[in-house]
Amino acid sequence: MNPIYAAAMGEGSNAGINEANISNWLTSQTNVHGKITFEIVTHGRSNLTYVLEDENKTKWILRRPPTGHVLASAHDMSREHKIISALEESNVPVPGIIGMCNDEDVTGAPFFVMDFVQGNIIKDLADTEKFSPEERKAQSKSLVEVLASLHLVDPEDVGLGDLGKKEDYISRQLRRWKRQVDEGSDRSLPLFDDLHKRLEDHIPPQIGHGIVHGDYRLDNCMIGLDNKVAAVLDWELCTLGDVLADLGGMLMWWGEKESSKALMSDSPTLADGYISMEEAAAYYEKISGRDLSDLPYYIAFQFWRLAAITEGVRVRFTAGAMGDKDIGDEIAGFKIRIDGLLEASSMKLKQL
User: Fold this and answer.
1) Cβ distance 73 to 180 under 8 Å?
2) What is the pLDDT of residues 139-182, one digit of tens each?
3) Helix and strand tally (H, E) in the chain?
4) Taking Cα atoms as reference points, which of 146, 142, 206 lies closest to residue 172?
5) Cα(233)–Cα(215) distance, rounded to whole angstroms?
6) If residue 304 lies in a helix (H) or strand (E), which one and from where to where?
7) What is the DSSP letter of 34?
8) Considering the entire predicted model, what is its pTM?
């Protein structure tokens, strides 16, 4: 994780977990042997993830909203549970679902539990060191294959036709993130505003609709011991719309060796062996049959969107800083990153 994000998100223990109540609930859903231990593996304003393990070493994953005041619509456990359950019979690898609990008396919020999937989360260059170039190539090709498989799923066929509005995905996203920055930021961002206008004026025609993961990249997938995607994770931003936005997002995080010194410089897919961004795009195009003439637009949009998200994190971090701690370096780091994301968006738009 980027240290800026880590600082903003903070550390914590098993807040939001009533171990006795959850243990009783899980025992009613599946076979549990002895005492269950709980270990948190993510923190912050994103949905919280815990590993549960019984005395037989059987493991499960529990997902619940972050503690504190949050927007319920952004952390809808039933929605995430519905998506994963719907995709269980598809060609998209997802964890098996154990159950969903909407009774907030159990642990203070709705939650669901799913199977633990064995494998590796590869989040940075350091995590790639234990793999050979051949293994890395297999991982990156599988990442592209699974994204193409997701985009081939007909939402109506798997019961997700009512997941969200189908048309005008990009215009809806542009309005949403522009409004969030306009209403939440404490400063002016002229380039952000200019890019919004340029992106709005050049939206590619949306060809059909499909399931958009919303944050598809290598470290949001569990890579199995065979170096293929064993499970796609973190479905909280999933909706329906223009699936090429997903491809643009994946490629934004991919990194480019010639231009990644400031941005995505620790992206695992920059390690030797992983196919290049261009190869990934060509592979997706071959599998999906989709026209990628407007691909630079979708990457530009994702850089702009990430700048909006990061600006929101910066504002929350600034407002939440307490005591006498000097946060100047962290704030400067946020601003440098946001400026870099906006410049990267501008550069991609020039490729159209």
Assistant:
1) no
2) 999 999 999 999 999 999 999 999 999 999 999 999 999 999 99
3) 11, 9
4) 206
5) 9
6) helix 295-320
7) S
8) 0.89
